[in-house]
């Protein structure tokens, strides 16, 4: 299927099926991680949040974005999860009903860092001053 030139490519980047399968994988991974019992000490001692799972159009590959509770040791955690991705794939095969269980790759979720950076930029005095210039004044909405 070919996209028309007038369509926004971001809007049609992922199909409804990709989103649905990604969300099912996210829930299944969260259940597996909550059960614990990992041999790897990095995984055994971590509380991990799966923030998003993006699935390829053919549903054979998936990227799971993770962040540890507290945010410390992110790179070591991602490396440990990628070492154990065969285990996670076998567990996912039992948890979800798909013809093919996707290959899972884990990646660090940096969206929280980006939002913190934007928030800090907006709190700068120069930006606050510029925002105050654009605001004609607070309207008093209180009535007597």
Query: How is the biggest beta sheet arranged?
Result: 3 strands, mixed
User: Percent of residues in helical segments?
Assistant: 40-55%
Q: Count the strands?
A: 3
* Strand and helix order: HHEEHHEHH
Rounded to the nearest angstrom, the radius of gyration is 21 Å
Classified by CATH, the class of the domain at 16-109 is Alpha Beta
Instruction: Tell me the number of helical segments per DSSP (H or I, 4 or more residues long).
Output: 6
**What structural category do the secondary elements indicate?**
alpha+beta
Low-confidence stretches: 1-11, 138-144
How far apart the termini lie comes to 62 Å
Spell out the CATH superfamily of the domain at 16-109: K homology (KH) domain
Which sequence of strands runs across the widest sheet? 1-2-3
CATH architecture of the domain at 16-109: 2-Layer Sandwich
Mean pLDDT: 80
Percentage of β-strand residues = 15-25%
The coarse overall form would be: flat
- CATH structural fold name of the domain at 16-109: GMP Synthetase, Chain A, domain 3
